[in-house]
Amino acid sequence: MKIFEFTTTASMNDEVLFNTLLAMERKRSERTGTTFLFVNIRLDRIVRLRMNGLFDQIKLALAAKIRETDVAGWYRYRADIGLIFTALNETSFAVSQAAIGLKIRNLLSQFLHPAEIEETEVTFHFFPDNDLNGEDGIRSRNKMYDDRRNPRASRKIFELLKRTTDVVFSVSALFLLSPLFLLISLLLKLTSPGPVFYRQKRLGELGVAFTFLKFRSMHVANDSKIHRDFTQNLIQGNSGNPNGIYKIQKDPRITGLGRILRASSLDELPQFINVLMGQMSLVGPRPPIPYEFECYQLWHRRRILEVRPGITGLWQVNGRSRTSFDEMVRMDLQYIKNRSLWVDLKILLKTPFAMVGGRGAY
Prior knowledge:
Alpha-Beta Plaits; two-stranded antiparallel sheet; 16 helices
């Protein structure tokens, strides 16, 4: 695909052409399964303050920096600059976003003051993404625009309130549930040899690894290959299980007490420690094991790269392990797009009922 070059006499046709190319590239991506990245640079806040040809300077500099296989143009005329990056060669979301984001920031620093750069919003959208189902270019564009996060100040307030809630709730839970912690720990020691806590490497926000805590529910000497093969087949759609169940049924590695802990989700209680340490949140997508992440399609990876993982989420309160993997990812992406304190509160209120029901837990 040839670059759509800017001209110094930009017109509304630039916006129409760019969005047409974006719609065509998306349809090609959905048909062939090849990936591409759409980057939106929102500059309308800055241009209101500096009407001095700033846009023309930035757009020409961006057009000069991208490859011939990529496309640059107006996403919204004199408001948003759009970039389409093709031929990603299976580069991961995190690596692509970090590398391209750094280049854009360095280029903007040539034209904008540091405070203006902080006010400039840059969003990344990978395709194909089954969460976006617009039928044409205009509708696809509106869907993506709705997916943009709240302004920077609102995001900071939300993240601060969310983190405050996480800390207060996790401290309270650890204090109030301490007798239950002691009882479960004692029962684990009495019923099977091994440690009280099960520690496992998981991937958190932006793919950063951390030590994930659970009450041990398995025998110490067990073969992890059972779970590795099962989850990899499940993610690839080859599980052979009814409804694509996301847990191994009648897993021989689980102890008698472990089955009770898993069915009631009591094995998850130590994750309040992860929340207190800032590695997890109360509400968010579940953190994957690295070998699970390796099998993810590109659109799957958004579920952990954009937000901090959580103890509970839409998946847990809407079917738990009886939800197929792709549907679980769609629920996570739905949460990411619509997350708010009110959404978190509704999920937290539903979680005890899902735990008591035990539907889909193994």
